[in-house]
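Audit log entry. Action: structure prediction of a protein-small molecule complex. Ligand: magnesium ion. The ligand was supplied as SMILES and no pocket hint was given, so placement is left entirely to the predictor. Protonation state taken as written. Sequence taken verbatim from the request; no trimming, no tag removal. Recorded inputs:
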Amino acid sequence: MASSVLHPIAARGLVRRFGDLTAVAGIDLEARAGSCLGLLGPNGAGKTTTIEMLEGLQSPDEGEISILGRSWATDAAGIRERIGVQLQETSFQDKLSVQETLSLFASFYRRPRPVPEVLALVNLTEKATARVHQLSGGQRQRLALGCALVNAPEVLFLDEPTTGLDPQARRRVWEIVEEFKRAGGAVLLTTHYMDEAERLADDLVIVDHGKVIARGTPPEIIRSLAVESIVEFSLAEGSTLDAGQLAELGGLPGVIEARNLAGGYLLEVDDTRAALGSLIGWLERSGTVATDIGTHRPTLEDVFVSLTGKHLREA
Ligand SMILES: Nc1ncnc2c1ncn2[C@@H]1O[C@H](COP(=O)(O)OP(=O)(O)O)[C@@H](O)[C@H]1O
Ligand SMILES: [Mg+2]
């Protein structure tokens, strides 16, 4: 992988099979220093399997991995000293305090950061002597981040770091990741939250069923949809549109595609004014009562819907 040697994280042609299931079906990715590569996809897309191969925790059936220019096969100990890993679920020793937990992780490395420095980094100084089981979800997650940062890594792997956290706790995690990026680190982050991907990822790989379905910067990916806006509406309880009606909507002036998703209707639109006008006319002609008509600029979620016909979250 000569061309990728300069990137701290690089992988080509990754494949991982579990029996008949191909969980990862040929993924290429690269993360630059000082940036975050987001791996965005629904549950079961193969994100954890991919990140665990990069972390050296699972071996690929096919493909090559280079971390900081080294390979797991020949230099596992050298890689481990220089990376930080936060697993999708971290189990701590409940009886240990926060600082004891960090000291334990620090003992795994030759040149760890001082524990008080890590406590400050993840905003847990005031919780230093608290037992792990006394922490809130957000505090636990920051402790997991602290454990991943205890060796001052150059590369950070985060698997769904904010799942289950409230908005404020999520923002604190995001700030720590942004600080790590600013200091020149490379981050690989998996998430099924498009807002997290939009906020943190400089580059994005969208995956579904183990395959890359879109890649680029978030704005590039959204632009690739070539949609001006999304028009949404709902119908009164109990009423639905049939396939023929949906096809009629898809053929209206300004409309590219019409979808029925999760109880609501979505129009991908390339001329918002024309589409709204023709939609209102169609609703009147067909005697359909629509509620909550609204429009929004396309998001990463809309790209995912457009490519797969399903939402990120429900998938
Ligand atoms: N150890 C395993 N044995 C069998 N199937 C697995 C194993 N790990 C993951 N899978 C399957 O591989 C697919 C991808 O899983 P995973 O990488 O955990 O996805 P994600 O992290 O995107 O939710 C899923 O269908 C999952 O059930
Ligand atoms: Mg996962």
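Audit: result stored. The radius of gyration is 23 Å. The longest strand covers residues 21-31.
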